[in-house]
Amino acid sequence: MHHHDTEAPCFSHFEPAVLRPAELTSFSRGGGARTIPLVTQAVGAEVFLTGQTLFDGGAGIALHTHNCPESVTILEGDAIVEIDGTEHHLTRFDTTYVPAGTPHRFRNASATEPMRILWIYASVDATRTIVETGVTVRVDAERDRAAATGCDRPNSYP
Known about the structure:
Elements: E1 25-30, E2 33-37, E3 49-55, E4 64-66, E5 70-76, E6 79-83, E7 86-90, E8 95-98, E9 104-108, E10 115-121, E11 127-130, E12 136-138, H1 142-148, E13 152-154
């Protein structure tokens, strides 16, 4: 059995939390996609970030990269993921791993049914860089920006 030093930075203490996406506020990512932050620095995360993104029928997000690895699991619906120029069809519980710096994007494979993903970034300092524009923002700052522009709205999915 391996013993972890709970005084090390990766194991700093923060209060346990139960996060219920249906009770949290989502914010618009544009184009029919909305994100619900879950494990973030706001609840004490110091090592990784998690959240969900909900896609309306036909919705997708722009091609982008991150400064750290990301894993995504499809929770609901069917997706098309483009990773480094190759498209893959994903269905419920299929999971991706995308290394830092690798261009990728997700879109809903259905024109009518919703799609939901769970994302996990390997750093609380995760950033997203849009390939087309080169604009980089911190993933955890997007909620603040959305609230300031009036895009923050209640989650409409169960």
